[in-house]
Specification:
Order of helices and strands: HEEHHH
Helix content: 55-70%
Number of helices: 4
Distance between the termini: 30 Å
Number of strands: 2
Largest sheet: 2 strands, antiparallel
Strand order of the largest sheet: 1-2
Shape: globular
Radius of gyration: 15 Å
Strand content: under 5%
């Protein structure tokens, strides 16, 4: 159930990849739909988040051999997941550090 909730939240914000396929034609997956203002705000937040410690490592792992914007959208989806968990649990953000 948690997986479908994350997918629904990503689709609502316009960060879920949708396919544009027809018959034997297969296209690249593109983010579309959802709320443009939310998508724009999350994208700008992702640009700033990749400068900080926990998201910098996540961005570097996602970017390995992929376009930079694809990795930024992955960070934006990660931010959205974190924000959704904060709202659901009614707790402030706390950065966990590996031990």
């Amino acid at each position: 159930m948690a997986r479908s909730d994350r997918s629904r939240v990503a689709a609502l914000a316009g960060l879920a990849p949708f396919n544009v396929d027809s018959g034997t034609f297969r296209s690249k997956r593109k983010i579309a739909g959802g709320r443009k203002r939310a998508r724009d705000a999350l994208y700008m937040a992702a640009l700033n988040a990749v400068r900080t410690d926990p998201f910098k490592a996540f961005y570097a792992r996602r970017q390995a051999g992929k376009p930079a914007k694809l990795a930024l959208i992955a960070v934006a989806k990660k931010l959205l997941t974190v924000l959704d968990a904060m709202m659901r649990n009614r707790k402030p953000y706390s950065q966990t550090r590996p031990t």
